[in-house]
Structures are given as C-alpha cells and as structure tokens.
Amino acid sequence: MSSADEYSDDDAGYYDEDDDEMLVDDDGSASEMELDPMNDFHEGSSRRKIYEIDYESLSQADVERQMKSEVEYITSIFGVTVDVASLLLRHFDWNKEKLIEKYMDNATTVSVAAGITPPEKAPKRPAASGGRLHSSSELSRESLIGPRRSSRRVASAATKSSKSKLLERATPPRQDEPFVCPICFDDTQTEFMSLVCDHKYCKGCWGAYIESKVKTEAESWISCMAEDCDVVATDTFVQQVLGEDKGTWGRFQELLVRHYVSHRPELKYCPYPSCTYTVSCSISRASLATQVPIVTCGNGATHKFCFGCNVDSDHRPVICPVAKMWLQKCHDDSETANWIKSNTKECSKCQSTIEKNGGCNHMTCKKCKYEFCWVCMGPWSEHGTSWYNCNRYDEKASKDARDAQSRSRASLERYLHYYNRWANHEQSKKLSVELYAKTEKKMEEMQITSELSWIEVQFMKKAVDEVIKCRTTLMWTYAMAYYLEFGNEKELFEDNQRDLERAVEDLSELIESPLDPEVIKTLRQKVTDRTVYVTKRNEIVLEDTARGFLEGRWTWNSPVAGLD
Amino acid sequence: MDARLRRVNKEIADCKNDKSSNIDIDLVDNSPFHLIGSFDGPEGTPYEGGHFEVDIVIPDSYPFQPVKMKFITKIYHPNVSSASGAICLDILKDAWSPVLTLKSTLISLQSLLCSPEPRDPQDAEVAKHYMTSKSSFEETARYWTEIYAGGPGKAGKGKASGPRDEIAMAGLDSAHVQQFQSLGFEKSKVIDVLRRMNYRGANVANINDDRVVEEMLKP
Ligand SMILES: [Zn+2]
Ligand SMILES: [Zn+2]
Ligand SMILES: [Zn+2]
Ligand SMILES: [Zn+2]
Ligand SMILES: [Zn+2]
Ligand SMILES: [Zn+2]
C-alpha cells in the first residue's frame, strides 16, 4: 500500500478536476467542527435534508402514555374499569372502532371472548348451568388433579370405558379438609388467588406460571391455569402476583407495549436487541415509491433502521421495493456468487495468494509488488486517475450477445459486476470492527509520539465512522445501479457513485497507512480534509438520488413489485 | 422441597396407588424427571392387545410448561410420527394447563389411539393412508401392533414368525408390489415409492403407472 505522502502531489488535480459542486473550503482545509458526528442527526424538521423524513422517537413510557389515553377513552364511554378496558382493547388488537361497534352490539359475548367473564358467569344465563366448581370448600384435590375431559380431541373421542372411568374417579368433595393448592400440593401455602372464575391456586404457582408465560413464551395474554378456562389475567392481577419480581413485571409491560405498537401502522419497535424504543412515523405506503424512511431510535445513534421495510440498517439511496428485490436476488443467487465473498484471491501477475485484512481496496502483492484493485483485479494505476471506471459495467457485452447462451452468460456477468462491488463494500464494512481496534491503537500511538491530545486525535475515529457510513451508501448504490435503465440518468448516477467511491477509497487508504511520527500534523490535516470531502460526496449521492425519486427521474430495467 | 419435585413425586405415587386406570409410570434412571409411561392399546382398535411405551421428560418449568412426550414403541397412527414417535396433540402444546397431570395426559394419548385426527396429522403419509382406505390402514396398524407392541396378530398362523413382511408394514398390496418388481425394480425401491405415492385402495386408479415408473427411476 502506498504511504500518505504519495498522495500530496496529486491532491490539487484530484480536487480541482471536480465539478462545480465543490463543497470543500477554498483553501482545501476544513475545521474540526464540521466533523461533529451529531451534524447528521436532526430532530427538528427545520434542518431536514431532502433524503431525510419526519419522525419521532418514543420511549416505552411515551408509548404507555398513549395506551393509557386509549384505555381511559374506553373506560369513559363504557363505564368499565381500567383493567376491563385494557383487556377489551387488547382483545380487539387496539382497534377502538371495532371494539365499540361489537361491544354495543353484544357486550356479553364480547366480555366472554375477551377473557373478562367466564361463560357461566355471564348474565342472562341460568346461574347453575356451569359444570365448574365454584367455592373453595367444594374444591377437591382429586377432582382437579385427576384425569379430566380435556381438549377437543379427547373430549369428543373418549371411549366408553375411559369416559366412565373418569366419572367414577371424581370423588365427592371433603368439606372439612384444609385447602391445598391443586398444582403444587404444598400444604404450607397460605395465600391463594383466583381470577373472576374463582379457580384458586397458591400465589407461588401463579407467580411461576406468569413468569414462564412472560419469559419463556413472550406471552402477555395469560389465561387462567384451569383447563379450558379462558378468563385472562388483568394487569392488576399480574402486578399483584408478581409483587417483588420486578424483572418479570417489567418484561410483561414491555410485551404489552410491543403488542400495541405492532398494531399501529404509524409505530415501529426498534429492531435492535433489548432496545425498548419505538419510532413514530406517518409515511404512507405510496410514499415508499419515492422516499426511504430511515430512522434512528432515541436510544442510540447506531440504532438505525428502515421504517418502510425489514432492513435493519440504512439502505439509502435505494427505495424499499428495489432494496427488497435486490436482497431477494442475492439470496436466490447466493451460490453463484459465493466465491466472491472469500477473503483471499490470487495475484493476477504471479498467482500467489493474497489475503485482504482491511477495508482498503488498493492491494499490493507481497511477492511481486504488483499493485492492483481488489474489486476488478485491474492495475491500481488506472484507479487514481480520471479514467477511474471500476464502478461502471460495460453494457456493450450484453447488448452484443446474440444467442441465448451468451445472453445468459452476459446477464450473469452483469449481475456479478454489481454483486461483487456490493459484497465488497459490505465486507469492508465488516472488517471495520478490526479497523476500529487498529485505529484506537494508532490514536494511542499518536498521543505518545506527538504532542496531540486525546481530543485532537479523534479525527481518526471520525474518519473511520465516515468511511463505514459511506460504504453503506455505496453498497446500496450498486443495488440501485443494477436495476437502473441504461441511459443519461444512469450515467449521471454513476458519476456521483464513482466520485464517492474514489473519495472513500482514498480516505480508507490514508487511515490504514503506516504512521509516521514526523508528519502526524500533516496527516491530521489531510485526513480531516478528506473526511469532509467524503461527507460532502456522500451528501451529493443521497441528495441527488432522493431528488431524482421526487422528480420521477429514475426508470427501472425490470418491473418493481409494489410500484404502480 | 423443590415444588416441581414434590409435584412429580406425588403424581408418580398417585399413579402407583391407582390400579384402575391401567396406566404405569416408571423411572428410567434415578431422576424423577425422565420417566417411561405405558398403557395398553384400547379395545376395539387396531392397537388392541399391544402395550405402548411413552418417553416422558419433565421440563424445568413443569407444570407451567407442558410435559414432553413421545412414543418409544413404534406405532402406525396419523398423529404420531412413524419414524420418531413424535406426537401431535394439542394438550402437549398450547392447550396445556398446569392442572393436567402425567396420568391424565397419558389417558389422553390412549384416547387419541381410539380416534385419530387425520386432518391435523403428524405423519402425512400415514394420514393419507387413513383417508384413502380406513380398512387397509387398520390392517397395517394392527400389523405394526403385532410386530412392535406385542399384539396377538396372525403369529399363530405362522405368517409373522418368519422375517417381517415389508409389504404389510408399508400397508401395500403384494400384487401391486410384484407388478412393478416384474419390471425389474428392486423390492425395497418399489415399496418405498408406492408407500410415498399412497398406492392403495381407490387411489390406485388415480395414479398413472408411468408416473410410478418415473418416480422409481429417480436416483
Ligand atoms: Zn401452588
Ligand atoms: Zn379459571
Ligand atoms: Zn433502539
Ligand atoms: Zn426500507
Ligand atoms: Zn504478485
Ligand atoms: Zn477496480
């Protein structure tokens, strides 16, 4: 790899040949202020960029407040308790309108279905109709723990012999015996609880049952422990049972919030592990044809995800339907393309094996010193000039193809061109974990060998952050370019892509080059300048693509599902 | 004492004391959390006369999560995997209730033998057989009971005393098997293909012989 110094002489030409969109300060230097990582994180819409959308991050408490106001609305119109209103809303998946309609129609049926009242307790039915045991004195161990008619299958199917056996075994209740929990048989238990159905069990068993539902099954709809009893535990009951078990209670509340959020189209739960934040965004389905709703939850700047689809990262500049199509294609063709992902390749001059261990694509063969591009395997010398063409696929080959066989070969080659570059940026991003560690070491080194303070060496980390961010953009530009119809618009798109890619590769190479204590100050200025430049180039790609979507400038070379 | 241990010990003791249900629960090793349950095949079913063993594993969160059960004895039944013994029964999954016991669950399994649910199958091939021809299915189930569960069967007539009849095991007609064997295919291959294609009873008319041959030619 080349050292930092090699770059000083071509700096001028490199920046000057660029178009009128030159955004770096005239003297070519940038202040540290512009590298503030918070620069690209806007809350207010006033500073919103064209490729950003309006959204709001909500904490669990914020969502709970929303839920509470829905519950209060139901309590006020039906005159029911908070617990009942909550069960009703949960039963109707928080669809207020449907709940109101059905409840007005038949409150009894709804209450039974929502687990609020057991069928035999519902009004307008003979009091003695149920076959259940009601008071605790009637409960007998035998009758509860013994074989019972169970489940649709057995209930309908029990043979004569086994059915009669079941009935014989139900011994008459013994009035004077102390109540023993029919689940644990622990006669030292003194605290018993039941839901409105009066199925009594000890508090310990209730606690273990609720914990297992909540923690093992991630279930917040917890029905009574009695067989075939559909009465559901209210929030108050769950809280009473759990008492000091704050962990399970907290998880239960989180499950309630998740259930609510999952039924609200304008809300989405943060997909990052153990994060409890929600994002609120009112983008319409139709807008997904022109906008990419990338959001960040309020819990951390790294919790970035797409509100419009299931991609757990930034997929700008490409819109959701096209991103989805591309991922599906990569999935379907994963075997064909697997070889690309390998970390080793052969030098095209001397055939010795070369391993990639950083993000930089400028490779130098250890044996023959041949300098080449990791992506296209072409000589690196061409990449530093305005002839840089590594990002572009020559459509000529596929156009010239006459017979079916060469057409299919050309189409595979075309796909591999884009996939190769996509996968390479993705891989370079992954190698960044390593790069972070290396950079950290380098920053420590710098502090020792130069008089720079810890704050002053942060420019290295900022550069790495920016490189990773831009590689994400670059990845998705290849997905976009694969589907873009050949023509002027695509040419312009690929010009922007090329400029960003060159800038990223340059910065990437610079931060991975060996450290020379003599020139740290110069290096610092250079890295800082190029980081600003890369940021601007990234901005240009994102902005221009977003504008293109709004103007309807992009046409696709194959039909995109979900677009009209 | 550990609540789970107390509960399981009580269940085992209750089962031992109760002679009327004819359900047995035995320890596999010294742990009360790995057991073997057993019962007789219900009268008036193809499983009559057989004795069936069930592997029982008590999970850590028992009885709040369902007990894990599978047949050890091989059994021909739409809701039991003929290969692994895995069982499809609602109370072993989401219809489980902590008030259910090992004994009541085993009784439910016994009842399942009386009334298969082929529309919710564990073993799709067996279920197809059941739906196509109940009498042929029952014949095969009876044969399995005889071979694996110690059922009475035709052993007295000398038929099963020799090697196992693979054609009867697969619930096929020996004339059908011979028909394709005569084309030069191996017996085991013919049995495998005909079983998978449900070449039985009224279904035979729906299957083109060329398709059968095509299937047999596949590697
Ligand atoms: Zn208890
Ligand atoms: Zn109940
Ligand atoms: Zn988050
Ligand atoms: Zn998306
Ligand atoms: Zn070489
Ligand atoms: Zn290249």
TrEMBL record, chain A:
Q: Which UniProt keywords apply?
A: Metal-binding, Repeat, Transferase, Ubl conjugation pathway, Zinc, Zinc-finger
Q: Which Pfam families match?
A: Ariadne, IBR, IBR_1, UBA_ARI1, zf-C3HC4
Q: What are the EC numbers?
A: 2.3.2.31
Q: Can you tell which superkingdom this protein's organism belongs to?
A: Eukaryota
Q: Where is the composition biased (Low complexity)?
A: 129-138
Q: Which residues form the RING-type domain?
A: 177-394
Q: Where is this region: Disordered?
A: 1-41, 114-173
Which SMART domains does this entry report, sorted A to Z? IBR
The record ties this protein, via PANTHER family, to: RBR FAMILY RING FINGER AND IBR DOMAIN-CONTAINING (PTHR11685)
Protein name as catalogued: RBR-type E3 ubiquitin transferase
The organism's lineage is: Eukaryota, Fungi, Dikarya, Basidiomycota, Agaricomycotina
UniProtKB/TrEMBL annotation, chain B:
Looking up InterPro entries in the UniProt record yields:
UBA-like_sf, UBA_C_fun, UBC, UBQ-conjugating_AS, UBQ-conjugating_enzyme/RWD
Q: Which Gene3D superfamilies match?
A: DNA helicase RuvA subunit, C-terminal domain (1.10.8.10), Ubiquitin Conjugating Enzyme (3.10.110.10)
| Location of the active site | 88
Give UniProt keywords alphabetically.
ATP-binding, Nucleotide-binding, Transferase, Ubl conjugation pathway
* Source organism, top-level taxon: Eukaryota
Q: Which family does it belong to?
A: Belongs to the ubiquitin-conjugating enzyme family.
Could you tell me what this protein is called? Ubiquitin-conjugating enzyme/RWD-like protein
This protein's species is: Rhodofomes roseus
